[in-house]
Amino acid sequence: MKVLIVGNGAREHAIAEKLAQDCELSSVMSKKNPAIAQLSKDYWICDTEDAEAVGKAIAGREFDLGFASPDASLAAGVSDVLARSGMLVASPTKAAARIEWDKSFMRSLLERHKISGSPLHEVVNAAEDARRVIRDFGAVAVKPLGLTGGKGVKVSGDHFHEIDEKVAYAQSLIEKDGSVLIEEKLVGEEFTFQCFSDGSRIAVMPPVQDHKRAYEGDLGPNTGGMGSYSSGKRLPFMEEADREEAQKILQSVVHAMKKDGNPFRGVLYGQFIITANGVKIIEFNARFGDPEAMNVISLLQDSLTDVFLSIAEGQLSRPAFSDDCTVVKYMVPEGYPGKPLKDAAVSIDAAGVEGSGAKVYYASVYEQGGKILTTGSRAFGVLGRAASLDAAERIAEKGCSFIKGPVWHRSDIGTSALIGKKLERMHSIRG
Ligand code: AMP
Ligand code: GLY
Fold first, then answer.
1. Are residues 85 and 210 in the same domain?
2. What is the CA(339)–ligand 1 centre distance, in A?
C-alpha cells in the first residue's frame, strides 16, 4: 500500500516510523526532517500549511491513503486536497477540524448537543464586555479562538492577577482577531485522551499527561509541550469514572458531528481536566498530540496503516495497546521558549541512545553540511518505555544524555517526585 504523510515534526517521525513497518511511505514536509526523509520512498518539500502547494507537490502521483498530521495543515484544508487527488484519507476535513481551529465552534457544538464538560464561557468582541465577563467569572482563562501552537492562552493566577491585565490581554486579542473567548478558570489535573474515529465509532488510546509549562515544577510560560507520560489505561491520579466520563464525551462529540452532517474521521484529541466537579473539557484537537503521539504510538500493537485504512473506509478496527509505561522528554534549544537559539549544531550518539533502550524522534531540526541544526522550536523527543514509570523515566533521561549541544530538557517529567505532587493535589481537590 502507498501511503502519504504530511508533516515533519517528532510526532510525524513517530507516525512515519510506525506506518513504514508495513507500507510504502512517502511524505510532504515543510522542512526536511532527516529521519522522515530516510523512512520515505519519495519526499517533497513545500509549505505544508498551503493546501494547494501540497496538491501541486504530489501532482501526477498516486497514493492509496493519505494522512495530514499538523493542526495548521488540517486548518488549511490539506485533507480535502488529498481526497480530491483520489486517495482515501484518514485525517479530518477542514470542516471537521474546525473543532480545533475555532474554539467558539467547539463550545457551541457541545452546547447545542447538550454534551457535558464545558466551563462557564463567553465569546466577546468589545473590551467593556470582556471586563463584565471577567468580573462575573472571577478567575478566568483568556483564549484566542484560533490556533496558537498552545501558546496563546493566559490564565488568572498563573499569567496575570489584576483585572486590568486580563482586560488588556482580552482587548489585544479583540484588536487582532475581532473576538476573544473568556472561560471560567478550571482547577485540577489535566490529561490527554485521544481516540481514532471513523465518523461514527471511536477506539480510545491510553491517556497521557503532557507538561505545557517550560520549567521544572510546572512553572514558567506555556510551550507546545515539554514532555509527557502514560501508565496504561489510567494515569496515577485518574479514577475509572474519570476515564469513562472522558470517553463518553469523546463519543458524544463524534455522534454530534455526524448528526450535523460534518463527520469527524481521524484522530480526535480531548484535553480534559479532573476538577472538584468532575471531568471538564479544555479543548479538542483534530490530530495526535505532540508529544503525546510518541507515547501512544510506541504502545500500539497493531498496524497503524490498517487503523488508518479502517478510519478512511468508515469501518473502524479496534487496535490493541500495551499497558506499559512511557515517558517522553523534549530536548529544546537554549533560551526556549522566549529566545531560543537557532541554527546551533547538536549531535546524537546513536549507539549510546540505542544501548540505553531509549528512542529519539527528530522534531524541529534540519540537516546542513552533514550537521544537525536547531530551528528554535523543540528539537528532539526522547522516549523511554518500560513496565514501570520509574524505569521508563530513567531510560528517557539516559537517552537525553547522549544528545550534545546547546539544548536542555525538563528532568522532572515522569519522576515519582513530580507525579507524587500531582497525586496529592488531585487528592485535595477531590476532597
Ligand atoms: P489550550 O490551548 O486551550 O489547550 O490551553 C492551553 C492551556 O491553558 C491548557 O492546557 C490549560 O493548562 C490552560 N487552560 C486553558 N483553558 C483553561 C481553563 N478554562 N481553565 C484553566 N486552565 C485553562
Ligand atoms: N501536547 C499538546 C498538543 O499537541 O496540542
1. no
2. 23
pLDDT band at 148, cuts 50/70/90?
Answer: confident
Distance 53 CA to ligand 1 centre (A): 33
Based on the domain organization, do 22 and 130 belong to the same domain? no
- Using the predicted structure, report yes or no on whether residue 151 has a pLDDT greater than 80: no
Q: What angle do CA 178, 179, 181 make, to 5 degrees?
A: 160
On whether both 326 and 194 belong to a single domain, the answer is yes
Same domain, yes or no: 85 and 132: no
Ligand 1: residue of 153, 183, 272 to mutate (most ligand atoms within 8 A of CB) is: 153
Ligand 2 lined by 194 (C-beta under 6 Å): no
Identify the domain containing residue 173 by its residue range: 120-184
Q: Is 19 exposed, middle or buried (0-12, 13-18, 19+ CB in 10 A)?
A: buried
Residue 373 forms part of a structural domain: yes
Give distance in angstroms: CA of 150 to centre of ligand 2.
Answer: 7
Average pLDDT, the chain: 96
Side chain identity at residue 407, one-letter code: V
Write b or e for each residue in 160-199: b if 16 or more Cβ atoms lie within 10 A of its Cβ, otherwise e: beeeeebbebbbebbeeeebbbbbbbbbbbbbbbbbbbbb
Q: What is the pLDDT of residue 162?
A: 87
Give pLDDT, residue 150.
65
How many of the other CB atoms lie within 10 Å of CB of 128?
10
Interval 124-141 mean pLDDT: 94
Task: Give the number of whichever ligand sits closest to the CA of residue 226.
Answer: 2
pLDDT tens-digit profile of 51-103? 999 999 999 999 999 999 999 999 999 999 999 999 999 999 999 999 999 99
**Continuous H helices in 138-197:** 163-177
